[in-house]
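### Sample
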Amino acid sequence: MKIAILGFGTVGKGVYEIVKKANMQTQNLSVSHILIRKNKVRTMPEMTDDMSEILTDKDVDVVVEVMGGIEPAHEYILAALNHGKNVITANKAVVAIYLKEFTEAAERNHVKFYFEASVGGGIPWIQGLEKALRIDNVNSISGIFNGTSNFILDQMSKKGQPFVEVLKEAQKLGYAEADPSADIDGYDIANKLCISADIAYDIDIKNHQKLPIFGIRNITCEDVKYFQKRGLAVKLIGRSHQKDNKFDYVVEPALFLDQTLEANTPDNYNLISLNGETIGKLDFFGQGAGMLPTANAIVQDILDVKERKSHLKRDFDKRMEYCPDLTKGDYLLRTKVNVSELFKNYQVSKEGSYLVVHQIPVGMMHKLMKLVLQEDKAAFMVSLPDQEVA
């Protein structure tokens, strides 16, 4: 089986490294093309800067897209599918927007489009979710989807270091990009939660980044210490519920009791959970990113294509209503401005330097928080344990 790799960064090199191993050679896998940027020096015989060379090569069975970003990844994936190539990607940003389009193109051209590595890195989350869906309706998804933000919060908790210092350490270790916005502001999680919800509910979420998202940019050492005194750990999580043909979706900092699995998920690890009608709660834990864990998931998908293993088929055409008020909860809010007028319709109490907003719909809390941030750019909010579906 001949493989073309689009992009030769960290994950692309990981795929190449695994495929070159002796035991993979017995699987008859080989890399025949590596797409690099125009005018970049070719250091390997497999390298090319011409996508058409890959598309027109009838011997290429699988195209692995690990370029990242939206374009030209979207264009190249569609072109490969339309040329009868199986496609595997780790690119959550492009999958979150175009999952339905890619799935339809694959079916139309009698090829496969697999994307296990796009959510949870080396964790078999997508296949675990699909397996649960063979029997159950999955009524909720939640978890720590991003290793960079988890590393930052875990280190702040363990070492008492400020956010900025821990972020620099994460960048030195290669956990965080030079521009860490996608990780610390929650957009990476938003992409992964979108993909998960699309599969779980068989829907096609549009404009998911306009839904409630609040990151950890404003968290302080004092916040973390205060939570610890209360026996709580803070994590940046994504979660979604469905009920009566309605669904919600949120990315936000959340507090967990010290004895929970979420509170004890360390470093850059991920912990993603689903809840099914008969299976109950299932947790998936492991390396959510990194060269070899992510490449491992990609090669697993390659082997599924080779062995003609079909994944669960979803049409992504179920009609569901996004309901920002589906879930209610309690929130801690830290701000220097007077917010009594903003929250006049909800019970608010004082707790140290924080306000507790009681039983407010999640969507409304995020809406009001945007108004708070207009007056206080350093304001921070975090959800308390035990949110409930209304």
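The radius of gyration is 22 Å. This sample (Homoserine dehydrogenase) is used throughout the tutorial notebook.
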